[in-house]
TrEMBL record:
A family per Pfam: HMGL-like
This protein's record includes keyword Lyase: yes
Domain of life of the organism encoding this protein: Bacteria
MF term (GO), any: hydroxymethylglutaryl-CoA lyase activity
Protein name stated in the entry: Hydroxymethylglutaryl-CoA lyase
Record bears the keyword Lyase: yes
NCBIfam families in the cross-refs: PRK05692.1 (NF004283)
Any single biological process term in GO: ketone body biosynthetic process
Keyword annotations from UniProtKB, A to Z: Lyase, Metal-binding
Domain called Pyruvate carboxyltransferase: residue spans: 3-270
Sequence similarity: Belongs to the HMG-CoA lyase family.
């Protein structure tokens, strides 16, 4: 089995940090990830810097990242201005978020879910014309910090609506880390049935210690693209307690032991997680950096 890991530490990882990380250090993080074998990296977001100041230097970061063969850089966008900036910066992919509930969508993006679908549809057309790979992420697909439970039927209907714009990829995001393996299997099966032409991707947080179980459940359900964040850093600044992306090194440990091919070398990712913790002035949440590899190498 081959699985693609999307490294999200430079974007989803750093966006929730209170201390601003320099563009130079973000570029170092990206370079270290590329050197470890990661080939899809969500490097930046093109959002209002007043709301997410960590991402204000997106253009500078993209100007400095290594342009190696086979490496694809994604930028998160919310609107036409964001797409303009992404095109100017030379991204290879765009990721547009549509939130599954109005309450969270209004806080996160200033629009309803229906308006979010409309935005995505317009952006998808322009991005396709520009030759970009297009991902639409359904945020809060497993639960909302404001509305609570999100019915499976609601998410499946939203998948149907966003699929009309023919995305290259649909990502299901457990934004606040409340999902469980049974729900992962159900939504993955539903997405595959509704949008068989789109690649299915999953984004999990380990906030309540279910993130890795959910990742394995996704693989068992046929998902072959998983997000992870080196060091396990990350979260959403607009969702209470939305902490703890699943860590790239911890996920790699499980996948390596299971014989799953990723093309990523675990040792340099482990070193980067430790470096990132030092950079942020606090231990990285990832557990492998504390326990070490087994068998020891």
């Amino acid at each position: 089995m081959k699985v693609t890991l999307v490294e999200v530490a430079p974007r989803d990882g750093l966006q929730n940090e209170s201390e601003i990380v320099s563009a130079a250090d973000k570029i170092r993080l990206v370079r270290r990830s590329v050197d470890a074998g990661l080939r899809r990296i969500e490097a930046v977001s093109f959002v209002d810097p007043r709301r997410v100041p960590q991402m204000a230097d997106a253009a500078a970061v993209m100007a400095g990242v290594p342009r190696a063969d086979g490496v694809s850089y994604a930028g998160l966008i919310f609107n036409e201005r964001g797409l303009d900036r992404a095109l100017d910066a030379g991204v290879d992919e765009v990721n547009v978020v549509v939130v599954a509930t109005d309450s969270f969508s209004l806080r996160n993006q200033g629009c309803s879910t229906a308006q979010g679908v409309e935005r995505w549809t317009k952006l998808a057309v322009r991005a396709r014309e520009a030759g970009l790979f297009r991902t639409v992420t359904i945020a809060a697909a497993f639960g909302c910090p404001f509305a609570g439970e999100v019915p499976e039927a609601t998410v499946l209907e939203l998948i149907r609506r966003v699929a009309e714009a023919e995305p290259d990829e649909i990502a299901l995001a457990d934004t606040i880390g409340v999902g469980t393996p049974d729900r992962v299997r159900a939504l993955a099966a539903g997405a595959a049935r509704i949008a068989p032409e789109a690649t299915l991707r999953c984004h999990f947080h380990n906030t309540r210690n279910t993130g890795y179980a959910n990742a394995i459940a996704a693989l068992e359900a046929g998902v072959r693209v998983l997000d992870a964040s080196t060091g396990g850093i990350g979260g959403c600044p607009f969702a209470p307690a939305a902490t703890g992306n699943i860590a790239t090194e911890d996920l790699l440990y499980a996948l390596d032991r299971m014989g799953v091919e990723t093309g990523v070398r675990i040792e340099p990712v482990l070193e980067t997680g430790s470096w990132l913790g030092e950079l942020l002035g606090k231990p990285a949440p990832a557990l492998l950096g504390r326990a070490g590899l087994f068998p020891p190498r």
